[in-house]
Design a protein that fits this description.
Elements: H1 4-16, H2 20-33, H3 37-57, H4 63-89, E1 96-101, H5 109-120, E2 124-127, H6 134-144, E3 148-152, H7 160-171, E4 179-183, H8 189-195, E5 199-201, H9 204-216
Parallel strand pairs: 1-2, 1-3, 3-4, 4-5
Length: 217
């Protein structure tokens, strides 16, 4: 029988091999062995995606490989999702979050993973999906009384929508009562600073820590 360490390592390797079916099978083994789902995601799935991401940044991997690695990770996260949600039910919500991919952008793999991991960390997550207008962000933030708004943008041409959403929050009079975190492949620390966002993260694992810090600040 595989040890818990072996299973986590096999998850990483399956992502590196871009094999979503094997990821699902290994994730099921992890559940059966009682592996902590967050450890499996952070030390297994995320590490695999990070490696592919680093190769892509260095020109050693294609965009299609990066997308396939993301899909493989997503397949594993879905297997762990029931365990994560059960854990969430056993603890009180830490804070309320609104999250979504900005208007004009339909990419959601990273955003979905962040949402699941925030739920596992105890946050109440309102996931607006993709192609979300500034007005929808504002409306849901008001309705849910969220403390943090997270916006993702994978495409460079959609990053201005993050600024447009912050401007809409200012206009609606809610900007001072909420922290804003931005992320996505097209987003940088400099851009986050330029538009006045309180936080930036370029991966799902660090995003959870960022949200915790924003909540405490």
């Amino acid at each position: 029988m595989n040890s818990k360490y072996d299973v986590v390592e096999n998850l990483r390797k399956a992502v590196l091999d871009l094999d979503a079916d094997r990821v699902r099978a290994v994730a099921a083994d992890a559940v059966r062995l009682g592996v902590d789902p967050i450890q499996a995601i952070e030390d297994g799935l995320s590490q695999g995606v990070r490696t592919i991401g680093d190769k892509f940044a260095a020109g050693e991997a294609f965009l299609t490989e990066l997308v396939m690695a993301g899909e493989a990770m997503k397949a594993g996260v879905e297997v762990f999702r029931p365990m994560i949600l059960q854990r969430k039910l056993q603890r009180k919500s830490t804070a309320i979050v609104v999250i979504g991919t900005v208007r004009g952008d339909i990419h959601d793999i990273g955003k979905n993973i962040v949402a699941v991991m925030l739920e596992a960390a105890g946050f109440e997550v309102n996931d607006l999906g993709v192609d979300v207008s500034p007005e929808k962000f504002v409306e849901k933030t008001k309705e849910s009384r969220a403390q943090i708004v997270g916006m993702s943008a994978l495409l460079t041409v959609t990053t201005p929508e993050q600024k447009n959403t912050i401007d809409a929050m200012e206009k609606a009079g809610i900007r001072r009562s909420v922290k804003v975190a931005v992320g996505g492949a097209a987003v940088t620390t400099e851009w986050a600073r330029e538009i006045g966002a309180e936080g930036f993260s370029d991966n799902a694992v660090d995003a959870v820590e960022l949200f915790k810090k924003l909540l405490a600040s």
